Amino acid sequence: QLQLVESGGGLVQPGGSLILSCTASGISLDNYAIAWFLQAPGKDREGVSCITNRNGQTYYADSVKGRFTISRDNAKDTVHLQMNNLNLADTAVYYCAKDPDTFNEEGWWNPYAIDSWGQGAQVTVSS
After folding, report:
1. Vertex 23: Cα angle to 45 and 2 (nearest 5)
2. Which of 6, 32, 83, 110 sees the fewest Cβ atoms within 10 Å?
């Protein structure tokens, strides 16, 4: 049975860094495009970043470009999200998400295109 698991969330001060990791059971992540989404309280889930499986192309929301980096560790079958220079607006629950075989790169940011979600990891940026 497919299960995505996020780890690495926590509390960090503004300007600090965290790294989130996504692992899976039931599938190999390197066969799929994998994305990270966030959901802040009272707001819709929104795409943060995505990495494809075919050529490793990466995508980022404008709000995180230059601060966040998505990457794969194929040896460990893990997808990481390195988050630097965090600010208060980054506070949210972050979800690892698996795209379906019919993945459309132009719509990487669309939560309705996702077919599997992790349980989420809380990231809190606070002084």
Report:
1. 80
2. 110
Quote the CA–CA distance of 11 and 69 in Å, as a whole number.
19
Distance from C-alpha of 40 to C-alpha of 104, rounded to nearest angstrom: 25
- Reported as a single tens digit per residue, the pLDDT across 32-57 is 999 999 999 999 999 999 999 988 99
**What would the two tokens of residue 66 be?**
């230059």
Beta-carbon neighbour count of residue 36 at 10 Å?
27
pLDDT over 90 at 100, yes or no:
no
pLDDT at 125 over 90: yes
Nearest Cα to Cα of residue 23 among 6, 1, 10, 47: 6
